[in-house]
Amino acid sequence: MSWQTYVDDHLMCDIDGHHLAAAAIVGHDGSVWAQSSAFPQ
Questions:
Q1: Which of 14, 19, 22, 27 could be cross-linked to 31 through a Cys-Cys bond (beta carbons 3.0 to 4.6 Å apart)?
Q2: Bridge partners of 25?
Q3: For residues 20 and 34, what is the distance between their CA atoms, to the nearest angstrom?
Q4: pTM for the complete prediction?
């Protein structure tokens, strides 16, 4: 599974009618490994 799949399928999923507005996985060096389409730039 890629980090993008994890963001899309696990972090941005609907749980009991609630969901995150945006999500990202970011490395210690600040590099973005994966992000949702709504994550601010």
A1: 27
A2: 34
A3: 15
A4: 0.82
pLDDT at 41: 85
Sequential DSSP letters for 1-41: --HHHHIIIIISS-BTTB--S--EEE-TTS-EEEE-TTS--
- 36 torsion bin: left (phi>0), alpha (psi -120 to 50), beta (else): beta
Q: How many domains does the structure of the chain reveal?
A: 1
- In sequence order, the β-bridge partners of residue 15 are 18
30 within a domain of the structure (yes/no): yes
CA distance 15 to 26: 23
Instruction: Give the pair of three-digit tokens for residue 20.
Output: 């995150």
Query: Considering the domain boundaries, does residue 14 fall inside one?
Result: yes
